[in-house]
Write a structure and sequence with these properties.
Layout (H helix, E strand, L loop, with lengths): L5 H20 L9 H14 L1 H8 L3 H16 L15 E8 L5 E9 L1 H15 L1
Antiparallel strand pairs: 1-2
Helix pairs in contact: 1-2, 2-3, 2-4
Length: 130
């Protein structure tokens, strides 16, 4: 483990106290740790390592590792970008391009479709991609 600074130790102590407080006040003994506490624990891993963080916080090494991996995957996932569509009263032709993670592009051409339906379609596609 990398030597910890005072600020780093205070962060560990603060998060450890939050976890201990949650453990004292939880309704069920086997209740899972809330996502906000896992997220706080994950932020410590970069400075203190998996083992050091798990040991300092009193959490499972394996569970912490899974949360760190999940956070890495979520950070690596490209976010959808949206383009403003022009507001036209009548139906027009629209072209929607969807870029995949592997670099592939799908182009959808919508002719004579009202803007409201184009917006519904893009929300549907964006929801399926996430």
């Amino acid at each position: 483990m990398i030597p910890a600074t005072r600020k780093g130790l205070r962060r560990i102590d603060r998060i450890r106290r939050r976890i201990d407080n949650w453990r004292r006040t939880r309704r069920h003994v086997r209740a899972p740790l809330p996502p906000r506490l896992w997220a706080a624990a994950v932020t410590l891993v970069a400075d203190h390592g998996l083992y050091g963080t798990a040991r300092a916080l009193g959490v499972s090494y394996g569970a912490l590792k899974r949360h760190v991996e999940r956070a890495g995957r979520e950070r690596a996932r490209p976010r959808a970008r949206f383009v403003e569509l022009p507001s036209t009263p009548d139906a027009a032709a629209y072209v929607i391009e969807i870029e995949g993670a592997a670099g592939t592009t799908v182009r959808v051409r919508l002719n004579g479709v009202p803007l409201a339906e184009v917006a519904d379609f893009t929300r549907l596609v964006a929801g399926a991609a996430s």
